[in-house]
Design goal:
Layout lengths: L10 H9 L7 H4 L7 E10 L2 E11 L4 E5 L6 H9 L6 E6 L2 E2 L11 E3 L11 H6 L9 H14 L15 H13 L5 E5 L7 H18 L2 E6 L2 H7 L2 E6 L2 E6 L1 H6 L4 H6 L4 E8 L4 E4 L4 E3 L11 E6 L5 E2 L1 H4 L5 E11 L2 E8 L2 E8 L3 H4 L6 E5 L6 E4 L3
Parallel strand pairs: 3-8, 3-9, 6-7, 7-8
Antiparallel strand pairs: 1-2, 1-4, 4-5, 9-10, 11-12, 11-14, 12-13, 14-20, 15-19, 16-17, 16-19, 17-18
Helix pairs in contact: 5-6
């Protein structure tokens, strides 16, 4: 058994955990706060001299769908495995439904898990795979049989009960693995890159099905993924991770539109990036080759402060729309990428490289061919600006 938390986690601290920041607890406010389902508090994990997690804290509400998002090696799978008890943390605590599970073995925790490889038993039928964990007094034969039949309908495979995994498509195998994870009616569902082995069209369809099923069942769910689109399309909140630390916790819109660090701005979604310095009195940014760009929200910064600037391709204006904007720039088209409904136009403005997304049908009207000169405008309110020491 794990050791109990030494003190009640307060409302202020839980709110900070939800946003990725840790502050002092307020015991009185804790009684007024809705209790989260899962609390990870100051969790660290080391493998020898390598620190995979650095004092990570977060709180997940009942029924919430949360994605751990980040590049390979960022610690997202290590955090998932710590929650599952497969790799217990080196320090810190994990509490589920008010119960300290930090030191409990996996079999004593209340969760179901779907691995990237699905890990189905090839010698068992679909029905027997799903029923594998339905044992003991809580699951007499008739009840287990009913539960399997119910889950087969839930995941849309009622006709596949007697088939073996090798006879199913990848998408069907994923559904069987999901049904097996849900068989014991767990309070927590853990998904480790569950869709990464599928082709693009099946992934899009199944992630919609997964989200619909999760909402219908109301099970608290954590999904590990490196796919930004996948995380943003299914999650209530996203935990963006880098180098064993949480960079930001927020809704998909928050992490996309209001990133709190250069890493998040550069990793979540596509963006153009450049360095500049602040000309505070004029409300301008000055690039290394002397371009002057109007910006908002830089009043608090000192004159000459170096900054990193990010801008989304859908915010970069080109053509007639840009030409009527004061202080617009002149750019040269260096590449055009057709992406179906959209086209991505890459331009060079001095030494800046900017991408602009436009409807593909507008390419001709804009005259956006390689080598063409086009007006370019960066809306001041769309620039994401981060002070830097360099």
């Amino acid at each position: 058994m794990g050791q109990p938390l030494r003190r009640q986690v307060g409302a202020a601290e839980l709110m900070a955990m939800r946003s990725g920041t840790v502050v002092a607890a307020d015991g009185a406010a804790a009684r007024q706060a809705e209790a989260p389902y899962l609390v990870v508090r100051q969790v660290a994990k080391s493998f020898g001299t390598f620190a995979a997690l650095h004092r990570v804290s977060l709180a997940i509400d009942p029924g919430e769908f949360v994605a751990f998002l980040g590049p390979s090696g960022c610690g997202k799978t290590t955090l998932l495995r710590a929650i599952a008890g497969l790799d217990p943390p080196s320090s810190g605590t994990i509490t589920q439904a008010g119960r300290d599970i930090t030191a409990l073995p996996p079999e004593q925790r209340d969760f179901g898990i779907v691995f990237q490889s699905y890990a189905l038993f090839p010698n068992l039928t679909v029905a027997r795979n799903i029923a594998y964990g339905l044992r003991g007094r809580a699951w007499p034969r008739d009840r287990a049989k009913e539960r399997v039949a119910e889950l087969l309908v839930t995941v849309g495979l009622p006709e596949q009960a007697d088939k073996y995994p090798a006879q199913l498509s990848g998408g069907q195998q994923q559904r069987v693995a999901l049904a097996r994870a849900l068989a014991n009616e767990p309070g927590l569902l853990l998904l480790d890159e569950p869709l990464s082995a599928l082709d693009a069209i099946v992934r899009v369809y199944l992630r919609q099905e997964l989200r619909s099923l999760q909402r219908r069942l109301g099970v608290t769910t954590i999904m590990v993924t490196h796919d930004q689109e996948e995380a943003m399309s299914v999650s209530d909140r996203i935990v963006v991770m880098s180098q064993g630390r949480i960079e930001q916790i927020g809704t998909p819109e928050e992490v996309y539109r209001r990133p709190t660090s250069p890493f998040v701005a550069g990793f979540v979604g596509r963006s153009s990036h450049f360095n500049a310095k602040v000309d505070t009195p004029a409300g301008m940014l000055v690039t290394r080759d002397g371009l002057r760009i109007e910006a908002r929200g830089i009043e608090r910064l000192l004159y000459g402060q170096p900054v990193e600037v990010f801008v989304r391709p859908e915010d970069v204006r080109i053509g007639p729309e840009a030409s009527v904007t004061p202080r617009h720039l002149e750019g040269q088209v260096v590449h055009v990428e057709f992406m179906g409904a959209l086209a991505r136009i890459s331009l060079e403005v001095g030494r800046l490289r900017l991408d602009s997304d436009v409807p593909a049908g507008m390419l001709g009207a804009l005259g956006a061919f390689v080598g063409a000169a086009l007006p370019v405008a960066l809306p001041p309110e769309s620039l994401m600006i981060f002070p830097t020491d360099v």
